[in-house]
Amino acid sequence: xxxxxxxxxxxxxxxxxxxxxxxxxxxxxxxxxxxxxxxxxxxxxxxxxxxxxxxxxxxxxxxxxxxxxxxxxxxxxxxxxxxxxxxxxxxxxxxxxxxxxxxxxxxxxxxxxxxxxxxxxxxxxxxxxxxxxxxxxxxxxxxxxxxxxxxxxxxxxxxxxxxxxxxxxxxxxxxxxxxxxxxxxxxxxxxxxxxxxxxxxxxxxxxxxxxxxxxxxxxxxxxxxxxxxxxxxxxxxxxxxxxxxxxxxxxxxxxxxxxxxxxxxxxxxxxxxxxxxxxxxxxxxxxxxxxxxxxxxxxxxxxxxxxxxxxxxxxxxxxxxxxxxxxxxxxxxxxxxxxxxxxxxxxxxxxxxxxxxxxxxxxxx
Length: 365
Known about the structure:
six-stranded parallel β-sheet, 42% helix
């Protein structure tokens, strides 16, 4: 792998390799773009087959965070960390403390958070060595706690924006919403939808999770493979990625696709197909940004009311995505990218890479 050549393709700023023999730490920090501010992105621990696979994943995820943070209106850039190892057997406290020291050494250019394979407890260990970490436990000063209800609220607001685009009215009363997956975020989302009078059809590979929604929200449960055939107004993918694909699109009866799952489109071509069919698609990294908005608020000393007010603007962000889609005659997934790029470019004219100085401090400690 030609690392610098790979970095040039999407103009990455920095790739940092972190090794600690005593703890077994092998980590890669990728910083994509800090035009808007310090790079914020989680730490993923995964059993990569090769070091090259880990590098590619870190680069891909870091660039995704640049777009997510920019589209969310945050003054933050994009970065990501991958730790090579099995999170079930390779973790130890010394590993995360060592990693925290590497994060501290970047002097605020990168701020980490929880991701796949890491936990709130791991963030607490990192926090012992650096302030440049979010998503620490609720007992820690300035922390935001469980982000699921906040993420769900953002998805709810996004669904309303998509409904306005598709139906000319953002009211969800009487609308049928097919919710695929009823985990923590989706359960909280169902509560918001139920309160507004939406009719819910749910599914989950965990039948107990689906039954919980049936009992609480008068939902109807269907088998996982049947959710795509439901006669509904809105399809809300809230579990696995890539559920918008060649097999499912012909089966969808919804006018809106809007949910909390990541990577909902199997390929960009499937976003093109939704656009051609006139189905309103709320790009995943825009509608599910409530979580990153929530943890980003920790950087100012967490205030839930302020965080929720910021999460409400997901509605406005999606309205802008739909406007760009119509303005430029492009699918909404491309419009979301364009919105993020336009924001970054407007700031790039006045400043470049982020460096911590007297005007940029973290208030927690």
